[in-house]
Structures are given as structure tokens and as C-alpha cells.
Design goal:
This protein is of the alpha/beta class. It folds into 2 domains: 6-33 and 213-242, 3-Layer(aba) Sandwich (Rossmann fold), CATH 3.40.50.720; 35-205, Rossmann fold. The chain is built from 8 helices and 10 strands. It has helices at 35-51, 53-62, 85-94, 118-121, 144-149, 167-175, 196-199, 216-232, and strands at residues 6-8, 26-28, 77-81, 100-105, 113-114, 127-130, 155-158, 180-183, 203-205, 240-242. The strands form 2 sheets. Strands 5-4-3-6-7-8-9 form a 7-stranded parallel beta sheet. Strands 1-2-10 form a 3-stranded mixed beta sheet, with no helix packed on it. Helix 1 (35-51) packs across helix 3 (85-94). It is globular and about 60 Å long.
């Protein structure tokens, strides 16, 4: 395709495209396309895990009335790791839940700590939400040391990419019951039959559906229309992740 100039993905992550991207071709990701749905699912996973929804469903399936007191999200401290579009969208959706929010990003700024402060912030959080893109710098950033710094009973929510979490380090923490996890993404994905995360106590799994909701199609349509309009007008596209000034 010698005339190819721009590749547009409909995903926020783009690591799967890089091996096939020809030299000199601009790559654009989906930008803010999935922020709404992914942030919505992140909050859903927090609420479901802390309020015991999976246990209620298992009780209903078994015809059992499982009454007990579960944790509220109110008064919890939520640490958002990766404060880009999705991370900020998560905080907006938490605004009505009376939580304290801590923020960490690659580039520190007012109200947002840098990654160097992450070890100090992890023990303060009841819920840790992972929203970072998958890069070589973030691959398995949630490792044994990261998990060890989380407080006992803490909840790890991953709506980023499965490979951001070191699964081998996570499994003993959740199987032993010290930590809990609500995961929309896993490594490997999908999990093979018999994998310990299927049955580990305190683990809630969803099948990588963060961006897959009815909110996707109208936003995807508008993104494509906008990008084609800019291309036709000779204007640079939005959401460039690889291009003349953005290295692979």
C-alpha cells in the first residue's frame, strides 16, 4: 500500500499495530473514544466487588439468602494509576460516592503525583485502579513489590491491559486472601481453563469489555468523520501516537 499515509485504530491501546506499521506512516489511536465506557466499568467493578454483588449472584443461583454486611465505597481512598483520559473519567464518575481520590501519572502536575511517589501512596489506598497504557515501561509494573505495598484487604481494579499486571505475582496474593482483584483484562487473555484466577476468592472477572458498550458506536462514527474531515482539509489528524514528531 504505497499510498498509505495514516492508520486509525478504534482502540486506545495501539501496541498490537506497531509491528505492522510501515515506516513514515502516521498512527492515530482512538483518543478519548473509550473513556466513557471504560471508566463506567471501572466504577462498576469497584462497587460490585466492595458491595458483594458476585456473592449475591452465587447465592441467587443456589437459592440462598446470603445476608451480611459488605464494604461501602463511601469513605474509601481510591488511587488512580494513570491519570489520562480514562483516569480522569473515572474520577468524574466517583464524584458522588464520597471517596478520597489520589492520582498518579507519568508526568506529575498540580494535584497529580509522579510515579516516583507511587510506593508512598499505595499503602494509603483501599482501591487501586490501573488505567495506564501498555508500554515497555508499564509492562508488569504491578509486580510483587507493588502488590506488597497495597494494604491488607485492598482491591486492585485493572481496566488497562492484562500485561500491566504480573499475573504470577497476583495469584498468591488473591488465592491467599490478602488482596482482592476486579479484572477486565488478564494475562493470558482469555484465561485458560483451570487457571487459579477463575476460582480465587475475592476475584471478579469481566471479559475485556471496558470499551464495548452502546456508547462505542456513535463515538466511533464521530471520530472517523472528524478524522476524515481533517485529512481531506489537509489538517493534521488528532490523537497521533506515531508520526513525524512522535517516535515508535
Amino acid at each position: 500500500m504505497p499510498a498509505l499515509r495514516v492508520v486509525q485504530t478504534l482502540t486506545a491501546g495501539y501496541e498490537h499495530v506497531l509491528p505492522y506499521l510501515p515506516d513514515g506512516v502516521t498512527l492515530c489511536n482512538a483518543g478519548r473514544l473509550h473513556d466513557t465506557s471504560t471508566a463506567e466499568l471501572a466504577v462498576t467493578l469497584m462497587l460490585a466487588a466492595r458491595r458483594g454483588i458476585p456473592d449475591f449472584v452465587r447465592g441467587q443461583d443456589a437459592g440462598q439468602w446470603r445476608h451480611r454486611r459488605w464494604e461501602s465505597l463511601a469513605d474509601a481512598t481510591v488511587l488512580i494509576v494513570g491519570y489520562g483520559g480514562i483516569g480522569a473519567a473515572v474520577e468524574r464518575r466517583l464524584a458522588g460516592f464520597e471517596v478520597d481520590v489520589l492520582r498518579v501519572a507519568r508526568r506529575p502536575r498540580a494535584g497529580v503525583a509522579g510515579l516516583a511517589e507511587l510506593p508512598e501512596l499505595l499503602p494509603r489506598a483501599d482501591v487501586v485502579v490501573i488505567c495506564v497504557p501498555l508500554t515497555e515501561a508499564t509492562r508488569r509494573m504491578v509486580d510483587a513489590g507493588f502488590l506488597a505495598r497495597m494494604r491488607d484487604g485492598g482491591l486492585l481494579v485493572n481496566v488497562a491491559r492484562g500485561a500491566v499486571v504480573d499475573t504470577a505475582a497476583l495469584v498468591p496474593e488473591v488465592v491467599g486472601g490478602r488482596l482482592r482483584a476486579a479484572l477486565d483484562v488478564t494475562e493470558p487473555e482469555p484465561l485458560p481453563p483451570g487457571h487459579p484466577l477463575w476460582t480465587a476468592p475475592g476475584v471478579l472477572l469481566s471479559p475485556h469489555v471496558g470499551g464495548n458498550s452502546t456508547a462505542f458506536l456513535p463515538r466511533a462514527h464521530q471520530l472517523i468523520v472528524d478524522q476524515l474531515g481533517r485529512f481531506a482539509a489537509g489538517e493534521p489528524p488528532h490523537h497521533v501516537v506515531v508520526g513525524p514528531t512522535v517516535p515508535v
